[in-house]
Amino acid sequence: MEFSGFTREDFDVFLVEGLEPRMDALKERIRPKLESLGQYFAPTISVLTGEEMFVHVAKHARRTINPPKDTWVAFANNRRGYKMLPHFQIGLWKTHLFIWFAVIYEAPQKSEIAEKLLKRAEQIYREIPKDFVWSVDHTKPEMIKHQQLSNDDLIKMLGRLQSVKKAELLCGYTIDREETIKLGSQPLIQQIDEVFQKIAPLYKMAIS
User: Fold this and answer.
1) Are the beta carbons of 70 and 93 closer than 8 angstroms?
2) How far apart are CA 53 and CA 58, in angstroms?
3) What is the Cβ-side half-sphere exposure of residue 108, based on CA atoms within 13 angstroms?
4) What are the C-alpha distances in Å from 185 to residues 40, 42, 60, 104, 131?
5) pLDDT in tens, 80-121
6) Quick one: 30 exposed, middle or buried, by C-beta within 10 A (0-12, 13-18, 19+)?
7) Nearest to 85 by CA among 47, 43, 51, 44
8) What sign results for the dihedral spanned by CA atoms 124, 125, 131, 133?
9) Separation of alpha carbons 92 and 109, rounded Å
């Protein structure tokens, strides 16, 4: 596997001004690394979920003015797309790396997925590690620490996912930029692998 880890220059791509210059920098510096991570982890996630997973590196093709503030590689059981399905992501903001299980607003089965997760809410609350985090909007870097949630808070988030059209829910782990840089290649891969082991059960609950 040709993955050398992420560098300060990779994170600083998100400081490049202008859509085209930033897109060029993303394509040159970060996309090859995300593609490597995608090819490496697709078989792992396929085994964890029992479904063949396909790799989707973000292209940001719809953007015409605002440069992307983050980028990612996604894994889903569909060759053609991932946004409409429960899926996994590895990606970067300028401040941190993220590893997510994600159900975003484009998913037409969002309400049914939320209902399945609600039935297992107590188990989810108990089994997600305390240092993991939640997000209710994949377009923003803000997160909620699992250790700061009550069981009722989690039920409310899942209820919102079920009833609000634009609601989203992501669960996973983040590593700040300096720690990501320090980890280099193999320790980072090991860390990502451990996170996928912990969030794969959410996927299985969502599709059961």
Assistant:
1) yes
2) 16
3) 0
4) 12, 17, 26, 29, 22
5) 999 999 999 999 999 999 999 999 999 999 999 999 999 999
6) buried
7) 51
8) positive
9) 27
Max Cα distance, the chain (Å): 47
Eight-state DSSP code of residue 29: I
Give the type of residue at 23. Answer: M
Angle of helix 110-119 relative to helix 151-163, nearest 10 degrees? 160
Alpha helices of 136-176 — where are they, by DSSP H? 151-163
Element containing residue 97 per DSSP (H, E): strand 96-103
What contacts 141, CB < 8 A, 6 or more positions away?
Answer: 69, 70, 93, 95, 96
Q: Closest Cα to residue 202, out of 165, 173, 160?
A: 173
6: tokens are: 């992420």
pTM above 0.90, yes or no: yes
C-beta atoms surrounding 132 within 10 Å: 19
Sign for the pseudo-dihedral over CA of 53, 57, 63, 65: positive
Assess whether pLDDT exceeds 70 at residue 1: no
| Distance in angstroms (rounded) separating the CA atoms of residues 20 and 149 | 40
